């Protein structure tokens, strides 16, 4: 939801240049049509890693909010994103597992990031949406969004948790890294964000404006992981009723609506017909495994996430707005850069009700655990038939076959950062296993009456 509300802000700070198919690209070369699915997944995971490894902010080594190949906005050069950096931590683990980067170098970098976060601004334990990578000071995300952001903190924290789990039984240096990550996550004051004990979490708190943003975190959207982590905290926890009264609205977020014969199961905030932008099924599920996961209201979270992806796929196949290119090999709508009517670059929370002919590759590619065949079709199409849509860090953030193969040679951390982790969850379940087997997470899920057939959580 915050991504949607931030569209105006982000559009305002974007510059109005754009690229077309005739423009110069970096590393854009046609991939052989004989490339295997395994090779394709390796390729895009390696490419996506570059965003957080090669293009990281040089002082903090965290993920920049955005990276532009045409030029980098001077006023954003050192702005780092906390949530996107959490995705980046998980991407780096994938890089280690796949042999893309040396383990020892990764440990050194992750330790540096942990040290930066320990000294950076925190607001009752929560980090802001944006930080200055040089100073660690809060960078305002909006007029009143100038303090703690508990949702972005959750996206960062799931990364801290999986890094801790990955290295906790390693050598002395790795154990020291795990301890740093453990201390960081235990410092988040989740219960402060109930605004004095209300049975709901609030998104923001500001040392200047207090609770003036007044944004309750209620489902269904991308924020589920916030409640899971808050309930799992051994230091500042929330109780089960805060989750059920807050996120699920006492079950009021359930729906009997279907689309293309597929049950939506829950009401997507402001998007009840087709479901919201596809990132709603990515951000919480980078670490939280939906397979066989249930709570008091949802019988299997995997049905929820898969159906949302399939509805988007079938929407593109149906193609009611008749956009050129839409179909089995080219689908996926999510919040991303976009094309304005005048051809300039903007930002939009794309979904079937907000569809302007722009496809964000991350939408389908990061849905691979839910729709492997359909997602691989998109990945293959992009790399073998649309090399102009591929840059130095993988598929560009926004593309359009309809507008004469328009694209913008730009990346956003929160979009690029879901690609390698979600593909790895499809391939090996790496991040899911690390998170779901963490003792605090098991206890938190049990507190919330979650069950998992896959992880024997009863």
Structural key phrases:
458 residues; alpha+beta; three-stranded antiparallel β-sheet; two-stranded antiparallel ribbon; 16 helices; globular
Explained architecture:
The chain is α+β, with helices and mostly antiparallel strands and 458 residues long. The protein has a single domain, classed as Glycosyltransferase. The chain is built from 16 helices and 17 strands. The protein has a three-stranded antiparallel sheet. A two-stranded antiparallel sheet has the order 1-16. A hairpin with a 5-residue loop joins strand 10 (335-339) and strand 11 (345-349). Helix 3 (37-53) crosses helix 4, helix 3 (37-53) packs across helix 12 (372-385) and helix 8 (224-232) crosses helix 16. This is Beta-glucosidase. Residues 1-21 form the signal peptide. Pfam families: Glycoamylase (PF10091). Residues 214-438 form the Glycoamylase-like domain. Keywords: Signal.
Shape: globular
Number of domains: 1
Structural class: alpha+beta
Number of strands: 17
What low-confidence regions span 5 or more consecutive residues with pLDDT below 50?
4-28
CATH top-level class: Mainly Alpha
What is the CATH third-level topology name? Glycosyltransferase
CA-atom Rg in angstroms:
20 Å
CATH superfamily: Glycoside hydrolase 144 (GH144)
Instruction: Please tell me the CATH architecture by its name.
Output: Alpha/alpha barrel
Distance linking N and C termini: 32 Å
Percent helix? 25-40%
Count the DSSP helices.
16
What percentage of the residues does DSSP assign to strands (E)?
Answer: 5-15%
Mean pLDDT: 93
Write out the strand line-up for the largest beta sheet, numbering strands in chain order.
Answer: 2-3-4
Signal peptide: 1-21
Protein name: Beta-glucosidase
Domain Glycoamylase-like: 214-438
Keywords: Signal
């Amino acid at each position: 939801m915050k991504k949607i509300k931030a569209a105006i802000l982000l559009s305002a700070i974007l510059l109005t240049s754009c690229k077309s198919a005739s423009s110069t690209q970096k590393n854009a070369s046609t991939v052989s049509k004989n490339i295997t699915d395994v090779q394709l997944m390796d390729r895009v995971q390696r490419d996506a890693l570059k965003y957080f490894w090669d293009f990281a902010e040089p002082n903090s080594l965290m993920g920049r909010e955005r990276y532009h190949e045409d030029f980098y906005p001077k006023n954003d050069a050192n702005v780092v994103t906390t949530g996107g950096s959490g995705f980046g931590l998980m991407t780096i683990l994938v890089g280690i597992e796949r042999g893309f980067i040396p383990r020892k170098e990764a440990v050194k970098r992750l330790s540096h990031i942990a040290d930066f976060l320990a000294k950076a601004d925190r607001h009752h334990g929560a980090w802001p949406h944006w930080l200055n990578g040089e100073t660690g000071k809060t960078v305002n995300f909006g007029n009143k969004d100038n303090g703690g952001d508990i949702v972005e903190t959750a996206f960062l924290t799931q990364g801290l948790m999986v890094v801790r789990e990955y290295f906790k039984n390693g050598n002395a240096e790795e154990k020291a890294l795990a301890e740093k990550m453990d201390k960081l996550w235990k410092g988040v004051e989740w219960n402060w964000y109930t605004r004095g004990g209300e049975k709901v979490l609030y998104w923001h708190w500001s040392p200047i404006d207090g609770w003036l943003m007044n944004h309750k975190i209620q489902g269904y959207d991308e924020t589920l992981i916030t409640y899971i982590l808050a309930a799992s905290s051994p230091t500042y926890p929330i109780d089960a009723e805060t989750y059920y009264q807050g996120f699920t609205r006492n079950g009021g977020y359930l729906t009997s609506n279907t689309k293309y014969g597929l049950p939506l199961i829950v009401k997507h905030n402001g998007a009840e017909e087709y479901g919201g932008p596809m990132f709603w099924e990515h951000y919480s599920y980078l670490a939280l495994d939906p397979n066989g996961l249930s709570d008091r209201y949802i019988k299997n979270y995997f049905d929820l996430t898969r159906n949302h992806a399939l509805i988007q796929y079938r929407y593109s196949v149906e193609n009611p707005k008749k956009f050129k290119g839409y179909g089995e090999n080219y689908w996926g709508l999510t919040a991303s850069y976009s094309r304005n009517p005048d051809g300039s670059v903007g930002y939009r929370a794309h979904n079937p009700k907000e569809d302007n002919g722009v496809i964000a590759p991350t939408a389908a590619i990061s849905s691979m655990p839910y729709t492997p065949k359909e997602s691989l079709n998109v990945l293959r199409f992009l790399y073998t038939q649309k090399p102009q849509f591929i840059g130095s860090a993988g598929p560009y953030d926004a593309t359009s076959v309809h507008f004469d193969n328009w694209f913008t040679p730009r990346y956003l951390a929160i979009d690029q950062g879901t690609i390698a982790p979600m593909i790895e969850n499809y391939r090996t379940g790496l991040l899911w296993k690390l998170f779901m087997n963490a003792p605090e997470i098991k206890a938190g899920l049990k507190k919330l009456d979650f069950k998992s057939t896959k992880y024997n959580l009863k």
